[in-house]
Amino acid sequence: MPLLTDSFPLPVLADRGDAGCACGAARPRAWRSWESRREVPARSAEFPDGADLPPEGIARRGFLQVAMASLAAAGFTGCFRQPAEDILPYSHPPEGLTPGVPLHFATGLEWDGLVVGLVVESHEGRPTKVEGNPSHPASLGAAGVFEQAALLGLYDASRARTCRLEGQEVAWSTVQEALEARARRADEGAGLRFLVEPTGSPLLLSLQARILERFPRARFVPFRASLPEGLHEGTRRAYGRPLDVVHDVAREVVVSLGADFLATTRPGNLVLARDFLAARKPESPNRLWVAESALSVTGGFADERLRAKPSQLRPLALALAAEVGAALQREEWSRLRPPVEALSDAQRGWVRRAARDLLAHRGRGRVLVGPESSGAVQALAFAIDEALGNAPRLIEPVARPLGGLEALASLVGELRAGTVDTLIITAWNPVYAAPVDLGLAEALSRAPFRLYHALHEDETSAHCPSFVPAAHAFESWRDGRAPDGTAAVLQPLIAPLFPAAMQEADVLGVFAGLASQSPHALLRALWREWAGAPQDFERRWSTWLAEGVIPGTRAAPVHAELEEHAVLAATREPVPPASGLELSLVLDAKVHDGRFAGNAWLQELPEPMAKLTWGNAAWLSPATAARLGLEKDDVVRLALRGQSLDVPVLVMPGQADDTVTLALGYGREAPEGVAQGVGVNAFRLRHLDAPWGASGVGLTAVGRREALALTQEHWSMEGRELALQVPRARLTEELRALRPLQEDAPHLYAAPLRTGAHQWGMAMDLHRCTGCGACVVACQVENNVPVVGKEGVLRSREMHWLRIDRYFLGDPDDPGVITQPVACVHCAFAPCEYVCPVNATVHSDEGLNQMVYNRCIGTRYCSNNCPYKVRRFNYLEYQQREPLARLRQNPSVTVRSRGVMEKCTYCVQRIERARANARARQRDLRDGEVRTACQQTCPTRAIVFGDLNAPDSEVKRRHEDPRHYRLLNEQGTQPRTVHLLRVKNPAPRGGT
Amino acid sequence: MAPLFRPGTDAVLRGILALALGTPAVALAGWMWLARSPLGRGSFAPVEQPVPFDHRHHVADEGIPCGYCHEGAWRSPRAGVPPTQRCMGCHAQVWNDSPKLEPVRESWFADTPIPWRRVHALPDYVWFSHQAHVNKGVGCVTCHGRVDTMPAVERVVPFTMEWCLDCHRAPTPHLRPFREVASMTWRPPGGDAERTGRAVRAALNANPRTSCNTCHF
Lengths: 992, 217
Known about the structure:
Oligomer: heterodimer
Distance between the termini of chain A: 56 Å
Strand content of chain A: 15-25%
Number of helices of chain B: 11
Number of strands of chain B: 1
CATH topology of the largest domain in chain A: Alpha-Beta Plaits
Distance between the termini of chain B: 72 Å
Largest interface: A-B, 47 and 50 residues
Helix content of chain A: 25-40%
Helix content of chain B: 40-55%
Shape of chain B: extended
Radius of gyration of chain A: 29 Å
Number of domains of chain A: 4
CATH architecture of the largest domain in chain A: 2-Layer Sandwich
Largest sheet of chain B: none
Structural class of chain A: alpha/beta
Number of helices of chain A: 32
């Protein structure tokens, strides 16, 4: 018998491991983590040590479980009758509702002051799933991780439930009376201060204006951890006044200096990602240049990525301007060139090549700067863009009030001086998120009356004797504006779950003298006035509500002249010199500034690049870690200006040397529940003059280790080459070499039945996948997928049906990155099906690999035999069954209990529901009627699902695309999900 | 020397063996039979409701069609139990002082639901759609029996997976024209259920599926 390698001369079999390459030409080795590359054995096994052990410290619980199991087994009634149950129909049924048929309502979610429009599915009045609103300009049908996970925030059991007045639990009406007493004042509001988050909401802004009319000396102080200070300072320098920028990134060349515009972690980014991908056709991709200090989603997607310390972004911008200026014969610009020691040779080379690329694509490029950068750098980017004919679209600032952290600083001054007698806080958790050197907590106590309005009793409420619980966005009537200014009415999905919950408009309404009117009435009055009180207002109002946007409200572009001399003057201002180790504080990709820290879905979502769950870590580059003698999990003490913080180290390839990146938003002290005690509070290193970090941070090893819950080495497919990425120049030859990964291999078993009229299939285009993680959360929400907690993740027991693998390629210090979503690929010859002893996983005639929970006895043979490692086992009873948690479950999907295997079903509940609807209308299911949860939410349309039998389906087109390949095709599994390889477009080298 | 075992010993041994093997086998068989029997399934046990609602009176005497109250069956997975409003539509006018209807009036004025007892329950891991059946010519009476003759509703079919699959595998004799779906008394013309079923099946494109994911997901 010939050797397997002779009958199947596949490169994968011939050379597994290091240079394992399935398509001929030499390509860099792919690896999962710094530790795995050096073959540090820790947790690199397919199933880590202790994966099958019971959790520790639950002897009593375990005993009770066994006891209850025997009790349940004693009564075999479960095999016979169903338990007695009541049916509770409506007394007065709501209009237009048929029990069992979900309704969809357009609404939206405001965060960072801007709205992303959403469509929320509601089952008999309880919201169960969030989708993007295709009509909304900030969504276009997509939703990001925060929008998807917002649902859990609604059903959060740790939400505050009662009002407090001077420490006493009271009803809202009592608080309202107290506020009205505070509003009866003769000082024109001199002692009245509001600490608010900037918002684009016309309703809230009109209330603020009305309050200022009544109390001319009152002030609204803006506060949020991520105020757009740099951007507004930049536009003030460049255009004379603070403005917002609506970026258009559907460009040939995009240069990003620290702007992570492809991650879904800012309200406008969903659309930026879609636009950018629109200009990135695989056959003629655009080019993305990214300079950044820590590996981000955008950096991972870059064609030309450059590692730079945070302090080097400014010299990079100067050098870029100098290069562009020199080519455009602008004498003054060439003087911008930064001192030689500011940048390395490689960095100067990167700048030269980026500048050449921009110059070659005048009018078709864009320079983006991260929001953390200073005004001077932002202004310089505008100047470069204008000089190259890439003028950005400017609009008046959407979210107001304007201002930066200095506004909070002056409020603290007033508090200390004792001139503030009434302070109303509606901004999210300022005591936690304010710069540590402000001393806000201590200053707060100087205000005799301070009231905090928030979803949770948190760090700030501990310093406020008066408190009003806030209604969740899905419980409130309000409005808001998209990043491009388009207004939307955000309607509630459900009455407040906790009746004491009030909206911000209720609180502000008291001071505006409008306490008698509900936010709904205020909202209608405002928009009736805006529309000019037309006869058909009711009809218009219904249309706005149904569509989720108010037409004609997009902000008009502002025509502003660039003031070049002001920009150049700004660049000459001195900056503090940077030396030593630099600390970079970043908003977290999962919990943002900490406001989502109580959300278990987000806590368990692996960070897109580090794949870190449940906590934050100090990211260090491999070289820096080696120099300091540190390894992953070593706890270090970061010290900055007298403040110190103990945090575990994560060695992160692609990190700039001598830079420590630490995510904000963790280490919450309150409320009790999910958020408490996860990670460390990086706000303790945040200072007023250096909100995004500083240089000269001290770092010493503590000598302790703390395990980080990383998923990057879980579900390993053992070194085979899986995620393919090729440079554009080699595309043709690589496509030829891809043939073995596209063809059916001979197989011992009989071919599966393909009798179904529809043959479902999926295609995941790596060229479009940024790895943002929205699909992972969407899948979790849709399919009632539980969370397992940090202990579970450490044991590799996370339940995500869809995971995003992130591979590093090549150089460990400065690697390439590729992300690859992997869910059950629904093999035609499914290895799991052959080993199941009870036929709990079988094939359907439509090509689905079905998982039948009620048959599963939990042998886990299927999972062991799955080459893709996509099956998930309920080791414990992970599902929460308390009333609030049950409300959010998708009623169309079985809630799995302990001992059951589960995995991606291609959202078969959506297939069956759509089929029932179509067939009830006596027609067949059409292509495009069924969209899976991951497909629907994807901002870049990387995932396509559909019927391979439909003649013109998108999924069929992708299955026939020459870029497609089957994962582990040498196994002969014939997967129904194919991946499409990613094309990179690095700039040609040489001549620099 | 007397033999150690007397001739009858073999019979005793055989008896013990037969009991040891037979008892579990019979027990298992009995258990499986019980699980399928009306006793085990809880069929033919009328369920008392908080309101003594009589289908005989409403359906047979008054001729109210099924869809008047259970309209969801045509367009939703759930047939639905009517809201109190539906009851009050008539009973605000007729029998509006009957003590038997006190729970209905209480529900209406206090805006609280009437706690009806569920009669037809499927396990939570089964997804069943009335819409998919009713629109393909499966009559109400096929699964729910002659509700018009029941003083209190009871289950008349076993609702086992086997019973579901019997029809999904060979639906033809169980189908009826769409307009007759809610009829309690319809009989196939000429008594030939197979012939009628074939015509209905072709007209309504009724092709039930039997893969697991049809009902379990």
